[in-house]
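Please supply some protein, with fold tokens.
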Amino acid sequence: MKKIAFILLISCSFIISTSAQSTRPWQGKKCAVVITYDDAYDQHLDNAIPVLDSLGLKATFYITAFSTSMQNRMNEWKKLPLKGHELGNHTLNHPCVGGPGRDWVKPEYDLSKYTVQRMLDETRMTNLFLRALDGKTRRTFAYTCGDMKIGDSSFIEPMKKDFVAARAVRNQMHKINEIDLYNVDCYMVNGETGPQLIEWAKKAMETNSLLVVLFHGVNGGNSLNVSLEAHSQFLHFLKKNEKDIWIAPMITVADYIKKYQSNQIKTTKR
């Protein structure tokens, strides 16, 4: 009888453990949220960083190395990694595919006119620049304008050895075993209110998913903007629900996903 009871105890423990893993797979929490900011604007330093730091939240800043803010305030950007924030690669000059509806794309930075080698050279130069700022050699990448190809050629394949992960631009969220680390989806903010942003986080908790949020302007800087109030409301909600939400920079979450998926593959093969 003791042997049967022991077997039942082990079985119940396994079932509970498996259930916990499926409902709280993110460092023992329901979901993960990665807060990202693109293009390196003054408003990130002036409006986003103070709120993040006051709450102790860590974010990823995808840096366009030749941005005006980086040229003028490099020493301030250099301090971000010391506070635990990630500096990600968002290319040297922010090239995007030009054409109808994309009047903002300068002819000299029209990605359709690039070669794959030029893209590689410019992203690697940006990695070198960022390394000079933070001393780090491991980096994540964000596709500019969500563009992943030059003509018919994908440029991410030869770049994979340069990056741990790459963030795309599609309003989707996925469970931990469904994520492609070189095509990580995100929700782009464009005028949403605080409650609307909070709904995204609630959905991530309900579905045990990864939510990546992309901010451009924070009370200015870009027409894809978020108000100070909405931005603050969202960050305060995340902080208040830290027991259920794992909030970390992209590179930290990507490393965790890679390890988790690798362990799942090993378990399946047994």
